[in-house]
Design goal:
single chain, mainly alpha, two-stranded antiparallel ribbon, extended
């Protein structure tokens, strides 16, 4: 076991980020390089003492600027849970179980009290409760060797769960990439150029990296908006972790985009773009004039301008090197506003009848009146529709 592993074995394995690192292992690497040993509030003075003994350095007091982190566990108010799975995704040790649109709950024996599940919850139904110990605590240190042994076992179990979770996520991502590759190969026609497997995997990785950047940015902005001003130390620590995750996601995306060969882009034709804009403007002007019932001379002028814009667009398309789209123009039917109103009235009438029928003891008069409104709405709709 090297020095980093021995340091990591003494850390509480909450992966909470209060030390300024995105997890316990990165903090262990920082300590091995000379970083202070008193930046872990969850570990407290016991962890500082163990690190000082291991590294043969003076024992320091806990850095109080990073706040306090007493032993705690997460608790989900299950009646308020909406089953969004955001807390499940945020938990670093898979201590929350549940499924989409179903109630979630915390496995108390596996929860490390990192509080990373609190911020993502959209309905604020997660709270942190103190972890009650049956063994007396004196001066912040447990006097019972059995409890220290239990904490050591829980640290090892949390580390294993954290590593297993990361391995599972890696396997799932590799499985998704393999499925995308298989779908691409199945969908490719036999007489086309063979699929570049490396390019397919690269494109899928870039797409996932962009999604990760977007999600990291959204989570960071959401936390910035939700936290107070100024934020508490715990909130500030979470913001640091979220900011670093966002920056790391951006770096991964940048590296993938650099390694990916640039796609052959068709150069834009400014003249063609201007012609399209002019045509859209002329159409909008003519439509507005017709809606405002303009005089015939103004309508004739705008129609001539529209014809000239269409002619200019055809000339620009002929002179442009860009491929012309193979589109088939379809004449749109005019919107029948009265038909739309009748359909809306029919939908409301059906909803009223359905609502009354679902009541335990509906009023007969109200139900008959609603049924008459429904029949009348159907009759008016049938009368308005032209006969085939």
């Amino acid at each position: 076991m090297n020095l980093i592993q021995r340091i990591d074995a003494l850390l509480p394995q909450t992966q909470c980020g209060k030390c300024g690192h995105p997890g316990c292992k990165p903090y262990a690497e920082g300590i091995a390089k000379g970083e202070a040993i008193n930046k872990c509030p969850p570990g407290g003075q016991e962890t500082i003492t163990g690190l000082a003994y291991l590294l043969r350095v003076p024992v320091l007091d806990l850095d109080i600027s990073r706040g306090e982190a007493p032993a705690q566990i997460a608790y989900i108010r299950e009646a308020e849970c909406i089953g969004c799975t955001k807390c499940i995704q945020a938990c670093p040790v898979d201590a929350i179980v549940g499924a989409a649109k179903l109630m979630h709950t915390v496995i108390i024996d596996e929860c490390t009290g990192c509080d990373l599940c609190v911020a993502p919850c959209p309905v604020d139904c997660i709270e942190l409760r103190p972890l009650v110990s049956v063994v007396p605590i004196v001066g912040g240190l447990a006097t019972n060797d059995l409890e220290r042994h239990e904490r050591s076992l829980k640290r090892d179990r949390a580390r294993r769960r954290y590593e297993q979770r990361n391995a599972r996520l890696q396997r799932e991502e590799e499985h998704k990439l393999a499925e995308r590759l298989a779908r691409s190969e199945r969908s490719a026609p036999m007489d086309t150029i063979p699929v570049d497997n490396h390019q397919v995997v690269q494109d899928a990785a870039i797409k996932k990296a962009r999604i990760t950047v977007a999600m990291s940015r959204a989570q960071l902005y959401k936390s910035l908006k939700a936290f107070g001003h100024p934020p508490t130390f715990e909130q500030q620590s979470q913001l640091i972790v979220l900011q670093r995750q966002f920056e790391a996601a951006e770096q991964v995306l940048a590296m993938l985009e650099v390694d990916s060969p640039p796609a052959t882009a068709i150069p834009k034709d400014p003249a063609l773009k201007r012609a399209k804009i002019q045509l859209a403007m002329r159409r909008a002007e003519l439509k507005k004039a017709r809606e405002q019932r303009a005089d015939n001379q103004q309508l004739a002028t705008l129609s001539a301008a529209l014809t000239a814009a269409e002619h200019n667009l055809h000339e620009a398309e002929a002179a442009s090197e860009q491929p012309r789209p193979s589109l088939q123009r379809v004449e749109k039917r005019p919107i029948d506003s009265q038909l739309r109103q009748l359909k809306t009235a029919l939908a409301y009438a059906r909803a009223d009848v359905s609502k009354l029928q679902r009541q335990p003891a509906p009023s007969v008069d109200e139900l008959n009146a609603a049924q008459r409104r429904l029949d009348e709405a159907e009759r008016q709709l049938q009368a308005h529709r032209p006969s085939p």
